[in-house]
TrEMBL record:
It comes from the Bacteria. It is found in: Membrane. Keywords: Germination, Membrane, Transmembrane, Transmembrane helix, Transport. The chain crosses the membrane at residues 43-62, 74-93, 113-136, 148-171, 183-204, 216-238, 272-295, 307-326, 338-356. This is Germination protein. Belongs to the amino acid-polyamine-organocation (APC) superfamily. Spore germination protein (SGP) (TC 2.A.3.9) family. PANTHER family: SPORE GERMINATION PROTEIN A2 (PTHR34975).
Amino acid sequence: MFAENRKISIRQLQMLLLLDCFGTAVLFLPAELAEISGRGCFFAALLGGLGVSAASLLLTAVGRRMPNGTVVDWCRSVCGNGIGTILLLGLAGKLLLDGMLELRIFSEIICRFMLPATPVWVLSLVLLLVAGALAAQGTECRGRTAEILFFLVAIPLLLVLLAVAASTRYARVLPLALPSPSGIGAGLAEMSIVFRGLVFLYFIYPDLKKPVGFAVWKGCLLITAVVTVIVLLCLANYGEGMLAAKLLPTLQMLERVSFTGVFLTRQDLLLLWFWMASAVLFLSGVVFFGSLLGTQLCRQAEKKRKLWLWVVLAALFALSFLPESLMEAQRLRLAVSPWLNLAYLVGLPVLLLLLGRKGEKKDV
């Protein structure tokens, strides 16, 4: 049975957002931006993050107008059953795509760096089972887990980043260069992938103890700042040419600093532990909200969510093996995810706000 723990605080929401958004995309991000924007890659990350942070205000505005419903209620009341159902099916597809790509990419990374003798399907299955168990406990359990993991993981990671920053020479960053228009577009596209956790805001408002205010926007600004610093440090350590050629520059950058002691001897494993926490939390969100979406879309009782949980888990496991390799999965994400993010992080909120206002005027 599902636990009925459905209320979380604003602080828990912010920590969930931080961990949900720090997925595997950040591992590839510095190299991909350096390839397009050169020395202006960290400016591209900054501008892209600010742009996506502004888009979060749209989702917050929709939630303020309809605080007691989810996206299913919003779409059906504003767009009608037909168009609303089509939009919701697209959202379900986005959730499954984001989840299966995160699952496949992270499983491949773990297999490559930590457990080379373990089959990818075993790692994927273990991650999904842990995520499913967490999802079955409700939103409050996810919020409390995020609170615990944030302090256990973020503080050591911050210490490593500070050590990297202190030992880095910044000559490779100079002279400063601004990204081209295509570089800014790439920054927006890449950062929209980083902020994939924003899609959960479509479901979360009924579960909040207090109105969200600007908490989501502030969390997005913090994520933007941290990601920009990571890209800047990667650029300063490698230079634009070498950085563009690397596969996972964020991991390799953190290996450059040596700590005494056991816990921080392998900074790359520390970072992978951070991303493991992020991956499990994000996948649990996909499973939880995917099962909720399926139940509400089919107008079924709450008790049917257990069945939908297993459906989502099975779909994620099967779909994760469609890409043949790590790089093919990443190429698929770069080709498809930015367009879906544009549609559902910008297009759908604008549509709901405009049609909702039009409906209010008719009622008057």
